[in-house]
Amino acid sequence: MAFDWIQKEWFSKNSKLVFFTGAGMSAESGIRTFRDNDGYWSQYDPMKLASPAGFENDPKLVLDWYQYRRNEIKKAKPNKGYDAIENIAKLFPQAQVITQNVDGFHKKADFIDVIELHGNIHKTHCNQCRKENLDGCELLHDDKPIFCDCGGLMRPSVVWFGESLRLSVMHQAESISRSADIFFSIGTSSLIYPAAQMPYEAKNNGAKIIEINPQSTPLTSMADASIQGLSGEILFKIYQELHANYN
Ligand code: APR
Known about the structure:
Elements: E1 17-21, H1 40-43, H2 46-49, H3 52-57, H4 59-75, H5 80-91, E2 96-99, E3 113-116, E4 119-126, E5 140-141, E6 144-145, E7 154-158, H6 167-178, E8 182-186, H7 198-204, E9 208-212, E10 225-227, H8 231-246
Parallel strand pairs: 1-2, 1-8, 2-3, 8-9, 9-10
Antiparallel strand pairs: 4-7, 5-6
The protein binds adenosine-5-diphosphoribose.
């Protein structure tokens, strides 16, 4: 029972629930995480594939990698954890999502407010003038990089290592985190800042922190409840309990 881990008294019909998600949220959809044993970064060098210097050095290599990831995502679909968040949001209409994931899965539930902190792999913009979404968002045309009218190269609209998050997006995420009554941190190693700051923004403003992750993270010791398990399974159980109590 989910409420063996978390206390029913923390919730009320008007509670503001915030779901903060990382790569583990999509793991049960078959999409690899970054830092697990079989994660992307165990095999690939993030500085070559996900940094401005890497793109400058070998744009085709980077674009091929993002095309590969787009294809992986296209083959997958949101798992039951996503359905559970969608259903919980119907019970708690103030619910919002902040995600580090770029797969766009949360956006499929269009009635939930979703902040994509690290961008969206399905979108593109010019690396030079930042103009968005030229040429139907393809990353490659005839297997070649695509140039913007300004002469810059089109790239995926994701935040790379060494790049800053958009200030407006960052401020929105901070403000949502501070407004949370219950803050779920799900499937993230809680290592990458500034994203990893969000649970602390929530905690410092009185939220209860519930972590869902099969592994311990730097957040675990300050969480009010740390549930060791797979996000799809745990979120489904939490939804069942909340549905029974707050429908
Ligand atoms: N359910 C819940 N958690 C899971 C599951 C699962 N089924 N499978 C794995 N996890 C957990 C792992 O234990 C790990 O703590 O998900 C976490 C994934 O961590 P990372 O791979 O570091 O992913 P994330 O935290 O999202 O990374 C943050 O780093 O590389 C960048 O931009 C990238 O957005 C990403 C950021």
